[in-house]
Amino acid sequence: MKNNYKFLFGLCISIGFIILVDACQQNSIEQKMDSFQIIQEKIFLTNCATSGCHSSPTDGSYKQHGLVLEKTVAFANLVNAVSSNADAKTDGLLRVKPFKASESFLFHKLQQTPANHHSSKNYGSPMPLGSRPLTNGQIEFIRRWIEAGAPEKGSIIDEKVLEDSSVTYPKFETLAPPPAGQGLQMSLPLFEVAPKFEREFFMYQKIGNTEPLLVNRVEIKMRAGSHHFILYGFEDRTPTSVIPPFGVARDLRQPNGNLNVNTIISMGYHVYWAGTQTPYHNYTFPEGTALEIPANFAFDMNSHYVNKSTVAIPGEVSINLFTIPASQVKYKVKVINWANTSLNIPANRRTVNSKTFKVGKRTKIVSLTSHTHKMGEKFVIKITGGSRNGEIIYTTTDWEHPTIINFATPIVLNVGEGLTSEITYNNTSNRAISFGLTSEDEMGIIFGYYYEE
To answer: How big is the chain by its Cα radius of gyration, in Å?
Structure first.
């Protein structure tokens, strides 16, 4: 009988131990974070849902992307949601498409070479903008979560994936040059952008043409992190003392952030020729038209990179100018560079600044884009005068990557008619802002191309 008690006692102890172990295991399972919660807390919170980016609708950049990644709305704003990017919509991408990372805009935005993947598609700059890329482990964790169906609940991805803290900067492949006799290539070879620094610089470079060139296509490709790249010429009235030396980088800012006065002076004589605010740009002029570049010409190449990270990032730009023979050109294209330099943007207010630009000859507009700085919330261009008076022909809410519209049927303006820029600025600072050259100032410029009949 005694032995039976011992047996029963031992059995109870064993059963109790098993129950205790099982309870601990269950508790351990229950304590595991949901995979999406891990993404939210260990990736979005520190890299994306930050002030000024994707934290709330009050962020200065919200009008551009329309995406908030704050924890209470992030899942709904991502999974099965349509992106605000025009090319992503056209391609049928969702922000996150369950089971399909390759068809998820979020996954593409985390890659560091979106232009390489999508050729002429404008998917915008890689994210996080101006910061160190996500680690390979973070990107892989998000990819696996999407491929597993992108659930809101459930621990479906091993958190150890995040232990891969390496960062891959894919090799930047420069553009293949135009075929012999069909154009020329220029470049800003590999350069460095210091940590926590906004580098904007210029380099004046001869293009080596002894005869005028008729350019009918412009192609530009840049490494990630660029705000813009522009090809400038100098006005005929530019003093000889202002013309910069060839092949020398002239930074807008000194390492301590102070402005270089000589660089600013030279900018006052610039004439816009071509440019882009997207990582890849490829524009062909309408058939029978071309942009003429004078013989023995030189471009002042302007590159602007923003580095918000704590490590240096590389910059690089490749430019192709494709040419056609004069026999194929009926009209020579001219550059639109219409700026509202009389901006008045009071502190802590949303205001609208307008200006009208009229033409003196019958004009055909073939391309339009816009340029503002970060306070620019909405840029509208309207026709002024004639039968289409007041018609809106251009709208963008993305100051960093403004829409570029190439008109298959040109916009016709007769003598006395023109275009009006109507720009909404949201000045969230405590100081009044006017037209200026730095990112702390503002601009309001209609860029584009036209020809006269």
So the answer is: 28
Q: What pTM did the predictor assign?
A: 0.69
DSSP state of 395: E
For the cut 70, the answer to whether the pLDDT of residue 138 exceeds it is: yes
pLDDT at 317 over 80: yes
For domain 174-325, is the CATH number 2.60.120.310? Answer: yes
Choose among 104, 108, 89, 88: nearest CA to 148.
104
How far is residue 388's CA from residue 45's CA, in Å, rounded to a whole number? 48
Q: How far apart are CA 73 and CA 76, in angstroms?
A: 6
For residue 216, give Cα distances in angstroms to 180, 211, 319, 320, 409: 16, 16, 14, 11, 17
Task: Compute how many other C-beta atoms are within 10 angstroms of the C-beta atom of residue 133.
Answer: 22
3-class DSSP state of 237: coil
Please say whether the dihedral angle defined by the alpha carbons of residues 73, 74, 76 and 78, taken in this order, is positive or negative. Answer: positive
- The DSSP bridge partners found for residue 380 are 395, 422
Give 239-267 pLDDT, tens digit per residue. Answer: 999 999 999 999 999 998 898 999 988 98
What percentage of the chain's residues is helix, strand, coil (to nearest 5)? 20, 35, 45
Number of residues that this document lists for the chain: 453
CATH architecture type of domain 330-453? Sandwich (2.60)
Distance in angstroms (rounded) separating the CA atoms of residues 280 and 116? 8
Count of alpha carbons within 13 Å of 19, Cβ hemisphere only?
6
Residue ranges of the domains in the chain?
Answer: 35-163, 174-325, 330-453
Cβ atoms of 109 and 88 within 8 Å: the answer is no
